Amino acid sequence: MYAHARDGEPTPAQRVRSVIEAAESLTVTTGGHSIGLVGLHTVDAGGGLALHDPPGEHLGAELDASLDGTLPAVVEFTDIAPVHLRDRVRARLSLHGWLGTAADRGLHLHTEYAVLAEHGRSRRIGVDELAMAQPDPLARAEAELLSHLDSAHEDMVRALARLAPADVRAAAVRVRPARLDQYGITLRFEHAGRSHQEVRLGFGKVVRYPEEVGEGIRGLVVGRV
């Protein structure tokens, strides 16, 4: 079941699920350790997070030493744009909960709530919202799709940029694709200095698969390329 998006954008819960789905690394912080894990976590269909302790087994040892077999923990993710931007950090996500031992003797995070920080604000998302949401179907493919658009289709990016308001375009020294999801694409217009503006362009219809992205983008620029 999908939590419904408003105005053709992902809900905060969908964004959380998408960041987790696409992430290759994370940081786990407990009372005794802060450990970075790369390629040592998996996500199940319901959004459950399993962690595989790195060599040294610090987390497992700390969990074994706990009185009740659980360990309060915060798991942090950083969502980084795959294309070169001045500020590539698009969002920061933290999952707050507790670690327990899974059936396979791995570690499972029992999430109580999430905090998503993006666009200059932070939102707390409850576990019920997360359970109802699904990751964006483009989450795993977004990095490759955006990088390809940025490096191989400058003409298409320029055509998309012409859809932005004239004052935004006039002030820009560079434009790059910054985000992509099933509802649309976001362009970053960078100005002289360090300021920038982002403009979101919604697809004519929701994209269900990565193979449909090209059609969605062409639908936006038809007659303007």
From TrEMBL:
Coiled coil: none annotated. SUPFAM superfamilies: FMN-binding split barrel. Residues 143-213 form the DUF2470 domain. This is DUF2470 domain-containing protein. It comes from Streptomyces odorifer.
